[in-house]
Amino acid sequence: MTRQLRRVAAVMFVLFAALFVNLNYLQVLRADDLADDNRNSRRIISEYAVQRGSIVAGGGDAVELARSQATDGRYKYERSYPQGPLWAHLTGFYSLVYGRSELEASANRLLVGDAPEAFARNLGDFLTGREPQGDDVVVTLRPRVQAAARAALGDRTGAVVALEPATGAVLALWSNPSYDPNMLATFDRDAAVSYWDRTENERRNRALRELYPPGSTFKIVTAAAALEDGVTPDDMFDDPREYTPPQTTAAIGNFGGDLCNGGNPLTLQRALEVSCNTTFARLGVDVGAAKLVAQAEAFGLNAAWDFQLPFAPSRIPRELDAPSTAQSAIGQRDVRVTPLQMAMIAGAVANDGVLMRPYVIDRVEDFSGRVVREATPQPLALGGRDDGRVVSPETAAALQAMMRGVVTDGSGRNAALPAADVAGKTGTAEVGEQRNPTVWFVGFAPLDDPQVAVAVVVPDGGDVGSEATGGAGAAPIAKAVLEAALR
Fold this sequence. Notes:
Layout: H1 2-29, H2 31-36, H3 41-47, E1 55-57, E2 63-70, E3 77-80, H4 84-91, E4 94-95, E5 99-100, H5 102-106, H6 108-111, H7 119-128, E6 136-139, H8 143-153, E7 158-163, E8 170-176, H9 182-185, H10 189-197, H11 219-228, E9 236-237, E10 242-243, E11 252-253, E12 266-267, H12 268-273, H13 277-287, H14 289-299, H15 322-329, H16 339-350, E13 361-365, E14 371-374, H17 393-409, E15 423-429, E16 438-445, E17 452-458, H18 470-473, H19 475-486
Parallel strand pairs: 1-6
Antiparallel strand pairs: 1-2, 2-3, 4-5, 6-13, 7-8, 7-17, 9-12, 10-11, 13-14, 15-16, 16-17
Helix pairs in contact: 8-19, 11-13, 11-14, 11-17, 13-15
């Protein structure tokens, strides 16, 4: 009998110990995760009793992107978005039914005044009985640049990302089609559910979380790897109509099956200007898969880092044979990137070879306008490097000049501005038989003092279809965005 009691006691002890460990795990280690979980309706309902901070864009001409309005109903405040669709993929939504997304999710603790910086203030509010209030989040995006991106892209599906090369501050983030977050912030559950069900496509964030083949814009990376390996912009290359990589009989041809320079040898500079596939496919094989992948990873592919919005990491296979190296070198095969990634690549070239960490929150202000947190630009070290330098200053200078030639004398003429030198690269990516190409433009301006880098993607040929090219379909959009940013 005593032995049985001991066994029962031991089992009960183990169960109580497990319960104790689980309670501490939930209440201590996972407390923040569970509190911030979109499925935690009790937390969200309690938050509606707090005047949530605004999301604001612009400096002197501040524009409210999201704000909380007092109500007479069950919930004290309701979230509203004065220009909802224009900023939806930045602000996200704040919904009783679907929780939070984008900045409304990632900056939630700031917006409800629950960040560490607000502890003393919150304690004072508690002691004095003052109603708690969230902090305002001021973003880096510029309303004029964002509006220009929307207007230039028009009704076409696609995305635009613009950023400041020297700091990483995002100036525009536009994904089309968009949606109205007000329709999800409503307290009318049936209306919110109905709108959610019919806007899945509109809610896709094509600027940050959709991956596309980069096509010839990836030749910037290939050129960087080659220049770092000792090739110069003046090195000469043959001009065949096709290039057949080792280990295969499948040839790679130029756009339209043409020669790049009438069959005459051409420089690496000219090969980039006219986007010569045969030159860059061969160049990728000559440089080698290891160096090509390492250069791509230094620019940000195959990596995830801390960003203030959810994003999909861009990718390139780490193991490449000769044929796949040749195809990857021209941005085809299995290379996939986001517009954010391509804007970062253009920005790093513009910033003399230093990649900056992108960010969208410029500062946080309390209800009195006092700045409680401010962004500090930082280099982004990736690909096993200990700093943000992705290429040498000499390589960056060579790439800048080569990309300027693309706009002045090559495929990117439609991005040229009358008052500033623009450097860039077009891309027309094949996505399979019977499908229209994905077209790109990436670039920066002005050449001598870069203030803005931009990436534009228009999948499925935009409104042109199978005849679409990056120079015709994406470069004019980039031009409008660059012009708005520099105005």
